[in-house]
Amino acid sequence: MSLSDKKIQEEFRKLLEFKNDNEKLEFETEMIHLVIMKRIYNLMDEMGMNKSQLAKELHTSKGYITQLFAGDKIINLKTLAKIQRIFDVNINIEFENRKERSENLGNYDISYDKNDSDFGISNKMAVIPIDYEKKKPEYVNAG
């Protein structure tokens, strides 16, 4: 590895460091939100639903839905309860011990591929795996 490559890696590593605990907490919040919104996007895709239709079903504005998918707003529990009704699913949130997870599964990046088995929807139950090993999430655009 050349000196230039090492310098690039070091600069990249610095970009991925959290400045304080609050920044890390904000990141973790965004990652949980990202996973939830990806699951909702998949449900919408399965039903051929767009953001306007989802907004109508939720009795809210399309702008609010756009803000959720852009990550400008964080989804709340009441909206998630409505999502369960709209899509006729149960939301199952699992808590995992971080240490056991890293020993058993190792660190891995979140996959946004809707065909990825970790994010697949089966038996009409939306299972939300939570992983926030990345610094900054990218949000999906649901049409």
Could you provide a short overview of the structure?
Helices cover 53% and strands 6% of the residues.
Alpha-beta content class = mainly alpha
Q: Treating each run of at least 4 consecutive H or I residues as one helix, how many helices?
A: 6
Beta fraction: 5-15%
What's the β-strand tally?
2
How many angstroms does the end-to-end distance come to? 42 Å
| Basic shape | elongated
Radius of gyration over all CA atoms, rounded: 17 Å
Low-confidence stretches: 104-143
Strand order of the largest sheet: 1-2
Encode the helix/strand succession as letters. HHHHHEHE
The largest β sheet comes out as: 2 strands, parallel
**Level of helix content?**
40-55%
Overall mean pLDDT: 75
Short key terms for the protein model shown above:
two-stranded parallel ribbon; 143 residues; 2 strands; disordered C terminus; mainly alpha
Give a written overview of the molecule.
With 143 residues, this protein is mainly α. Helix content is 53%, strand content 6%. It contains 6 helices and 2 strands, in the order H-H-H-H-H-E-H-E. The chain has helices at residues 3-15, 21-47, 51-58, 62-70, 77-87, 98-105; strands at residues 90-93, 125-128. Strands 1-2 form a two-stranded parallel ribbon. Strand 1 (90-93), helix 6 (98-105) and strand 2 (125-128) form a beta-alpha-beta unit. Helix 3 crosses helix 4. The radius of gyration is 17 Å and the shape is elongated. It starts with a helix and ends in a 15-residue tail after the last strand. 12% of the residues are buried. Mean pLDDT is 75; it is low at 104-143.
